[in-house]
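Reviewers of the previous submission asked for a worked example of the structure-prediction workflow described in the proposal, so we include one complete record here. The input consisted solely of the amino acid sequence. No template or homolog information was supplied to the procedure at any stage.
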Amino acid sequence: MREVVAAWLAGAAVDWGQAPHPAPWDFPPPAFAERDFGFPRQAAVAKLPEREWLHQPTWVRLRRAGAAARTDRVLVISGEGDLAAPALDTAYPRVVRVHAADRFARLGPDTFEADPADTAHLRHVLDALPDNGIDWLHTLPLGITGPVGEASLNHATRACVDTPAALLRAAGDRPLRTWWVSAGAAPVTDAVTRPEAGLLAGITAVGPQESGVPGHWADLPGPGLDPLAGLLTGPTPPARVALRAGFWWTPESAPVDPGEPVLTDGTHLVLGGTGGLGTAIAEELLGRTGGRVVLLARHPYLPEALKPWADRVDLLAADLTTITADDIAFPLAGIVHAAGNPDGGLIATRGDGTQTVKLAGALLVEQLIERHRPAYAVYCSSLSAQFGGTGQLDYAAANGFLDALAHRDGPTARLSLGWDVWRDTGMAVTALETDARHQAHLAVGLSVEEGRRTFARALGSGLPHVLVATSGLEGAREFHERDTTPAAKPAGGDLTEEVCALLGVAELDPDVPLYDLGADSLTLLDIVESVKRLHGVDLDLAWLGPEVTMAGLLAKLSEAAGTDDVEVQVWREGTAPEVVCLVHPVGGDVHAYRPLVEALDPAVGVCVIADPALGRPEPPGWSVEDRARRYHAALQAKLPGRTRLLAGWSFGAWVAAGMAAEAEAAGQPVRALHLIDPPPPGASAADYSDAQLETVFERELGASGGTAGEHAQKLARACRANLRSMAGHELPRLTATPSHVWLATEPEPGLPSAGRDGWRALLPEPSHWHELPATHYGIVRAPHVTAVAAAIGR
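From that input alone, the workflow returned the following structure tokens.
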């Protein structure tokens, strides 16, 4: 498995079903534009006749639930409550229990308290275990209780997505097997009672693909853990199993005999109805009935394809994250949930969940079903819930929730449609243009007309769950289950040739930004490795900004990059007379500013200062005051005569304040200073415990792109050195610099909270104080960072 995996996420979670350009909800690309990871050049997968596309998930008996065997592995049981399991205690020579808490503590040789969403806490537990085989039993999903709603879904997201992701981040190369345990989430012989635990589909499918850690999802009829003893110590089961009536069952599939739907002429509501998939389904409903279709979208419009039925189409402007069933007073004959958003991220770099629109829409559908009892409800899911896909943890999990909802009891006929890729509309058409696997998948994807017909046939089947695979399920599996082992790199030679090979192109225009040619965060890290191997230059990753070109890269090398001097990197020249300088946070890497740069007016020039420590064997040992003086001088030399603004997030706010003081002392105060969630005056590393220091580093690692290896080591050194340099530093008092302070109002999990009132005595009046409902790391991500960008651009 590759040593370095990284992905930068950009942009807010968008309700693409409401976008002016249609987008399908069946198959968003991964969170980053992957290149070809050695996809075997086998014969093209054939597209099957339409009558062979539909498949029904079924459950079959795997084996009788037997007694446990003795094993020499170590068992960890993580969850809430007493975690009693006598049968497991008998089967394993050592059973370690990790009780969910908001702190880390070792209460005994085999008893811990830990925050199961805190990677550092889980790593401490794993460090206390031997290097031989470990079974980790994750039982938090058993605690999902109460009615299906926002509270239970929030609980389930933490139990089924956030905490499993934290465990896989902590696992590293340890010999671990994971067992995700739920109750009432599998439709084996009865209805689903806890559909929220369907979110486990994400970690089950995607976890092993990204981490290499084997994972199994076991659904029980109740909360008792003893029945698992025979499963864990017996033959290795499939990825998904469920216990019912004394047998372990596993999912398989059967072909579906499609039918024709019987639809009434009432009102049909389509969530995300202006997206590509939603529009196609709306067109099918209008053609098959004489009823009305309501397109719900944040910014609705009438798609061209629906204009022939304009007199029967209504537009409903609404945000799925805030609308309730009370806002939809008209009776409904049917509901189609085709809304969602394409964002995602690697488990290694995952921050907050990205599927809020899809999940909120699902809860709205549940409210509407309870109130209106429509004849049918269709959830537009995806094959990702079955087969995963790199960067699609949250997306696959959300679709697993939709699949589980379709198996609830009630008079409404529910259907979850696990779509294959669509080829004619939406982002999948232009995504991953150099990726051979994705292009091969598009070649067998559904056209809009095929999608319409497939929707009708699936709805006519009367089944609760139908998978759509144009090349058969095994063919679809090949497209989703990507190999994360990179293709062989050139052995040596010209850097341009290597960059071409990394981008998957025969040649490149030296003056076109590498990002526009398909570069992603993985490519950039490979370029850094190639530069070091071919030229002996330790290139700072921060220099590879969004507009870097091959010509610029070669020019940089000709200047013998890697000098010890402070470097001001120009990310965007801009056309306005002013430029904003962004100063690095405590970890030293400036790539966390990408969402801010993208949200800025393109006319505003942008330069960044990364920590020179990232290009040195050891940190320079500068004080904050000395660092501010050096950075100010470097900025003056780089951009003489340009009107400047300064902005700094985290530790960068302290340095930016010092730079503003230098400018005031020189009689040339900057036009504005933006301090983004600055640490309070007097803060230092002494305010952090060892666990919190590790949390800081992990957050910085994720903000910089989730890198590992040598760059991560540099980031760790810079992070610790900069925290140490804050001790005893006295921030300057500014008198002539217009200032904005942006404060995050939400606590950052795992980090101390501190007031920032001390800044008021250091800034001139009137200063501008802004509060945003974000965490310390969320404040520099969309959507919150757009407010900062708007103020900078004024």
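The mean pLDDT is 83. We consider this example representative of the routine output the project will generate in years two and three.
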